[in-house]
C-alpha cells in the first residue's frame, strides 16, 4: 500500500468510525429553541456586544460556511442567512439533519447545565444514537438540591439548627452520590468547581473533622438565610465546594465511576488563573483509585493537561469544546499538543454539544477534520504507521471512552 492509499484509508476510518460522545448537554425543547442567543454556538462570550463580537471570529466564519453547506444555502451565505434558514426548518428535521452525519453511537449527557425546564431529558436523545444515552451527574447541582430540601424541611418544622442542617446535608449528599454511583444509567460524575471557587481544591484529610464541620455549619446557615429570603442558592464557598468534591472523589473511586472536571475554556464566570488542571495535582495524588477526566482540552492549558495525563495513571484527557470555538489552525494546534505527551489510550473526544443540534454537528465534523489532518501530517513525515494512526482514531473516538466509563458497547460500523 503506497502513501496515497494509506491516507485514503485513514480518511475513511476517521470520517466513518462510530463515536462515543463522552461529554455533552441536552437539546433545547422545541418550544424553547430560541431561549438563548444562537451566537452561543460559537463562543462562550456573554452579553449582546460580546455575542456580536463572536460573529467576527475565524471560528464563526468557518461555522457559517459549514452550516450553509449543510443547509444547502448558496456559497457566501452569511451568519444571518444561516440563522434565518434554521428558523424556517421544522425542529425535528433540523435535529435529524444535524445528527445524521455525526455517527455518534452513544452520548454521555451532563443534564445539570441549568435551565432544565428548557431542555429535553437525557433519554430523549436516544432517537439519534445506536446505543442508549447515559447520564453524567453534576455534583454541585445535586448538592444544591439536597441543601434546598434540607432548608425547606427546617423551615416547615419552624427550626433553624445549624447542626441538624449540616447533618441533613452531609448524609443526604452521601446517600445521593452513592445511589448515583450504583445506577447503571449513570456513567460518571462532573464537577464545576472550576467555575465556583477554582481548581485549587483542598484535600480534606477527614471529612468528619470537627473544624471542617463547624465551618460548613456556619456557611450553610448563611446560605439558608439567603435562600429563604431570595429563593436563590448557589454553592460558591470554597469550604463547602471542596467538601462536595472530596466526597464525590471517594464514592466515585469506590464504585469505579470517573469524575469529570471542567478545566480551562469557559465563560467569564471562571477565574482563568485558577482553571489550569495543574491545580488539581494534590487531589489527583490523594485519590489514586478515582479516574479523573480533564474536560475541554484544558485550553489554554493543554500542555499541563497532557503532562498530568502522562504521569498519573488515574488521569484522562478530553479534547473537546475547542470545536467549534477555536479557528481550524487553533484546533489542529491543540490536538498536536494533546498528542505531544498524553498516552493515546487515555484521550477521548466529545462534542460538548449543548442546546442546539448544530453544536453536535460542528463538534463532530471539525473534530474529525482536525484529527485527520494532524495524523495525516504525521504519516507523511513517517512518524506514524497507518495501523498506529488508525488505532489512535478508534481509541479517541470510541474505544477509550468505552473502556474508561465501562460502557461495554460494540462499535456499530456501517459499510
From TrEMBL:
Instruction: Identify the domain of life.
Output: Eukaryota
Q: Which GO terms describe its molecular function?
A: hydrolase activity
Residue ranges that the Swiss-Prot or TrEMBL entry lists as coiled coil? none
List, for all copies, the residue spans of the domain called Amidohydrolase-related.
247-406
Q: Which Gene3D superfamilies match?
A: Metal-dependent hydrolases
Record field: transmembrane: none
InterPro entries membership:
Amidohydro-rel (IPR006680), Metal_Hydrolase (IPR032466)
Q: Which PANTHER family match?
A: AMIDOHYDROLASE 2 FAMILY PROTEIN (PTHR43383:SF2), NODULIN 6 (PTHR43383)
| Protein name in the entry | Amidohydrolase-related domain-containing protein
Which species does this protein come from? Trametes cubensis
Amino acid at each position: 500500500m503506497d502513501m496515497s492509499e494509506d491516507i485514503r484509508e485513514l480518511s475513511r476510518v476517521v470520517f466513518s468510525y462510530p463515536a462515543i460522545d463522552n461529554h455533552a448537554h441536552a437539546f433545547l425543547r422545541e418550544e424553547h429553541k430560541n431561549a438563548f442567543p444562537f451566537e452561543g454556538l460559537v463562543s462562550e462570550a456573554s452579553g449582546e456586544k460580546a455575542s456580536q463580537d463572536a460573529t467576527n471570529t475565524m471560528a464563526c466564519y468557518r461555522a457559517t460556511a459549514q452550516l450553509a453547506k449543510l443547509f444547502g444555502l448558496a456559497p457566501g451565505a452569511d451568519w444571518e442567512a444561516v440563522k434565518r434558514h434554521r428558523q424556517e426548518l421544522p425542529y425535528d428535521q433540523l435535529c435529524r439533519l444535524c445528527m445524521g452525519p455525526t455517527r455518534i453511537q452513544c452520548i454521555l449527557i451532563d443534564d445539570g447545565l441549568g435551565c432544565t425546564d428548557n431542555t429535553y431529558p437525557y433519554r430523549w436523545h436516544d432517537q439519534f444514537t445506536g446505543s442508549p444515552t447515559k447520564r453524567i451527574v453534576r455534583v454541585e447541582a445535586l448538592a444544591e438540591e439536597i441543601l434546598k430540601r434540607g432548608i425547606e424541611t427546617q423551615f416547615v418544622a419552624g427550626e433553624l439548627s445549624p447542626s441538624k442542617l449540616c447533618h441533613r446535608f452531609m448524609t443526604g449528599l452521601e446517600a445521593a452520590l452513592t445511589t448515583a454511583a450504583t445506577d447503571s444509567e449513570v456513567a460518571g460524575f462532573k464537577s464545576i468547581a472550576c467555575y465556583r471557587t477554582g481548581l485549587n481544591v483542598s484535600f480534606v484529610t477527614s471529612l468528619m473533622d470537627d473544624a471542617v464541620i463547624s465551618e460548613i455549619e456556619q456557611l450553610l446557615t448563611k446560605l439558608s438565610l439567603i435562600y429563604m429570603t431570595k429563593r436563590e442558592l448557589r454553592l460558591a464557598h470554597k469550604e463547602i465546594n471542596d467538601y462536595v468534591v472530596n466526597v464525590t472523589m471517594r464514592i466515585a473511586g469506590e464504585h469505579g465511576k470517573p469524575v469529570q472536571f471542567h478545566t480551562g475554556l469557559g465563560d467569564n464566570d471562571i477565574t482563568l488563573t485558577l482553571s489550569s488542571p495543574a491545580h488539581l495535582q494534590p487531589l489527583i495524588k490523594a485519590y489514586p483509585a478515582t479516574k479523573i477526566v480533564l474536560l475541554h482540552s484544558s485550553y489554554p492549558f493543554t500542555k499541563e493537561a497532557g503532562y498530568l495525563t502522562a504521569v498519573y495513571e488515574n488521569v484522562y484527557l478530553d479534547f473537546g469544546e475547542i470545536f467549534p470555538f477555536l479557528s481550524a489552525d487553533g484546533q489542529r494546534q491543540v490536538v498536536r499538543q494533546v498528542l505531544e505527551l498524553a498516552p493515546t489510550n487515555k484521550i477521548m473526544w466529545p462534542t460538548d454539544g449543548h442546546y442546539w443540534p448544530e453544536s453536535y454537528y460542528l463538534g463532530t465534523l471539525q473534530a474529525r477534520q482536525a484529527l485527520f489532518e494532524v495524523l495525516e501530517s504525521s504519516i507523511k513525515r513517517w512518524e506514524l504507521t497507518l495501523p498506529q494512526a488508525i488505532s489512535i482514531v478508534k481509541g479517541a473516538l470510541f474505544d477509550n471512552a468505552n473502556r474508561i466509563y465501562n460502557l461495554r458497547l460494540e462499535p456499530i460500523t456501517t459499510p
